[in-house]
Amino acid sequence: MEGGGVDHLAEERQKSRFDVDEMKIVWAGSRHAFEVSDRVARLVASDPAFRKDNRNLLSRKELFKNTLRKAAYAWKRIMELRLTEEEAAKLRFFIDEPAYTDLHWGMFVPAIKGQGTEEQQQKWLPLAYKMQIIGCYAQTELGHGSNVQGLETTATFDPQTDEFIINSPTLTSSKWWPGGLGKVSTHAVAYARLIVNGQDHGVHGFIVQLRSLDDHMPLPGITVGDIGMKFGSGAYNTMDNGVLRFDHVRIPRNQMLMRVLQVTREGKVVQSDVPRQLIYGTMVYVRQTIVSDASSALSRAVCIATRYSAVRRQFGSQKGGPETQVIDYKTQQSRLFPLLASAYAFRFVGEWLKWLYTDVTQRLQANDFSTLPEAHACTAGLKSLTTSATADAIEECRKLCGGHGYLTSSGLPELFAVYIPACTYEGDNTVLLLQVARFLMKTVSQLGSGKQPVGSTAYMSRAEHLMQCRCSAQRVEDWLKPDVVLEAFEARALRMSVACAQNLSKFSNPEEGFAELSADLAEAAIAHCQLIVVSKFVEKLQQDIPGQGVKQQLQTLCFVYSLHLLHKHQGDFLSTGCITPKQASLANEQLRSLYSQVRPNAIALVDAFNYTDHYLGSVLGRYDGNVYPTLYEDAWKDPLNDSVVPDGYHEYLRPVLKQQLRNARL
Ligand SMILES: CCCCCCCC/C=C\CCCCCCCCCCCCCC(=O)SCCNC(=O)CCNC(=O)[C@H](O)C(C)(C)COP(=O)(O)OP(=O)(O)OC[C@H]1O[C@@H](n2cnc3c(N)ncnc32)[C@H](O)[C@@H]1OP(=O)(O)O
Ligand SMILES: Cc1cc2nc3c(=O)[nH]c(=O)nc-3n(C[C@H](O)[C@H](O)[C@H](O)COP(=O)(O)OP(=O)(O)OC[C@H]3O[C@@H](n4cnc5c(N)ncnc54)[C@H](O)[C@@H]3O)c2cc1C
């Protein structure tokens, strides 16, 4: 994508055996998506206002102000250029800096859309769309995050004044973590226990104004601020995660989001026919976006590690010739190529999840709630699986880059620091896996009742076969048959779920049993989610994919993804009797051969992500591979090198040196 100087990776690029431009379109999702993405990426890269290479040198205050500046400038550009929603979303992506706008557009607006009545949407959405108000999603408290039903903030209906009184009764009820809350938001969708006539009706969302629209001061009864520095310099510190306390703050009754439950003027609580779980709908939406984001973060780390692995040479010089490129070491390949394959796998499962989410949203609008449990289980499970894998992968990519990977200029430390909270926010990954496990146990318990499992659990309808089938792989090549691979994953997932269900049935108290077996249940959930990813990759390959060699590369990556999982989790596959040790060894042999097929295409496969050097933000991952001179020059730019003799020499170094000298003379 970058033009200019000498291309140190040119030889690598010539080795590839497929049409990279066509692969770029597959990666982007469509030709249109590619064109939008490419255009916006260049726009951001060429605008000095979006410079980001100085982030980790700024103090928190400077960093935050800089983010405010960028967000305001981005908004101005969105208006000036009349960007569509798709283009604006891409702009946010390539600016690559967490900001309050993420929560405004990503959670505040969707919460009103999903949980507000038509009337409420008409009132609040135009204000939010024009950014005349800025909102956040204030759910988590100091004492409770995962356990939403345990939230303590109260919203008590006062029939005298037709208002709710929002209150933080305890220290632990302080809202804690919401992004955009600390310093920016004028409004929040705040989650609180609805109390009417002394009766607790559970947690609901309320639109609460926090700050004056004139001078930005907190309104009476509101205490609000930032919760302090987070992991890493730069990184997520561009975000003002906040603390908020309410001291009997009054809001009009019509500011409770009432799509699920209404409170009338008379104080009557009316449940609509919309299921309660819709209150959790915003989280379902965001979890779905987080899966796509995982493929972006992972592909970015993999792009850096792959390019650098082709540039870096260690050992193996023959007769004074060049040393071996580290990418040619089999160990490097076995660590790197599964991550490359995972990036593609997560991309495709993300595309599918987006489709699933759109489908469920359309059904909800037509009052069909039947697919909500499936959407919840898939978004929760895939959010958990992909973010855990991506966080681990970024750290692995750092190690794959050796010492230089630890330098800020590699781009990997900041990427890691910014990314890892994805394992926690929008649902702790273990808590989410246990939600999937509940869904699986329910599905297994209904097998044989005549109710056919559908969607992601449809494979369970073949339980009789999958519980006793034997893998047919006899030769290495058999592991390149999608049906063989899929059946092994289906059998493993089902057998693990059924084993959990059988163990659960031994407990007289199911909740006690669930708690006792929760580690096994989480593993069964992982097996189910891995099956979803594998099956969506296989489905992708059934589509018509144009471009010379493109489909073949994707096939190779699909098998790399599947067989590396099979290798990594062979304990599961063997202990459930899905494969034999001999078959595991054949699969591993096939995997090694696949790595050799990926090798000549590796650079082109990461070029297909079409990332600009600006977006990558990595000296090691530069498109032209010109790593060493840039690293060398960059080092001299560090503020510590502004002076040859460091500040502090006279106060702290010279006296120590002199003292040592005096001691030595004595
Ligand atoms: C730079 C400027 C540019 C400007 C550019 C402008 C344009 C920009 C355009 C777009 C930008 C978009 C950006 C989008 C990115 C967004 C980034 C976000 C960043 C991340 C922020 C993070 C925010 C947060 O973290 S918010 C807080 C999240 N909190 C949690 O996730 C809490 C987790 N806990 C829970 O979800 C629940 O408590 C629980 C599920 C664990 C348990 O709930 P419970 O006690 O009620 O449950 P049960 O287990 O008893 O379940 C009851 C029943 O309900 C079902 N269930 C549970 N959850 C759901 C659900 N979500 N949906 C449906 N059903 C659900 C469950 O299965 C049970 O069902 P049964 O049938 O078994 O009864
Ligand atoms: C960067 C960041 C941004 C955030 N932004 C927002 C925001 O905008 N708005 C908002 O409302 N919130 C936000 N949050 C809060 C976030 O959603 C919560 O932190 C998250 O849901 C996890 O909840 P917790 O902190 O209560 O974790 P805890 O539940 O306290 O987790 C602690 C440990 O306990 C384990 N655990 C908890 N329950 C169980 C269980 N039932 N079974 C087994 N193990 C369990 C977990 O696995 C974990 O290991 C943000 C958090 C972060 C880090």
UniProtKB/TrEMBL annotation:
Domain called Acyl-CoA oxidase C-terminal: residue spans: 482-658
UniProt keyword annotations, A-Z: FAD, Fatty acid metabolism, Flavoprotein, Lipid metabolism, Oxidoreductase, Peroxisome
Domain (Acyl-coenzyme A oxidase N-terminal): residue spans on this chain: 19-134
Key word Flavoprotein present: yes
Annotated GO MF terms: acyl-CoA oxidase activity; FAD binding; fatty acid binding
Active-site residues, as the UniProt record annotates them: 426 (proton acceptor)
Binding sites annotated in the UniProt record for FAD: 140, 179
Cofactor: FAD
Localisation per UniProt entry: Peroxisome
An annotated GO cellular component: peroxisome
One annotated GO biological process: lipid homeostasis
Residues covered by the Acyl-CoA oxidase C-alpha1 domain: 280-441
Homology family: Belongs to the acyl-CoA oxidase family.
Protein name, as recorded: Acyl-coenzyme A oxidase
